[in-house]
Amino acid sequence: MIRGKKMHQPILEGLETYLSGGGDSALPREFKAHMAACQECRTEAEAMREHALLLRALRAPADVEPRAGFYGRVMDRIDSQKGNSFWSEFLEPVFARRLMASTALLLVLLSGYFLSTGHNEAVFVTEPEAVLAAGDKPVVVMAEDQLEQDQNRERVLVRLASYHE
Question: What's the whole-model pTM score?
Answer without folding.
Answer: 0.35
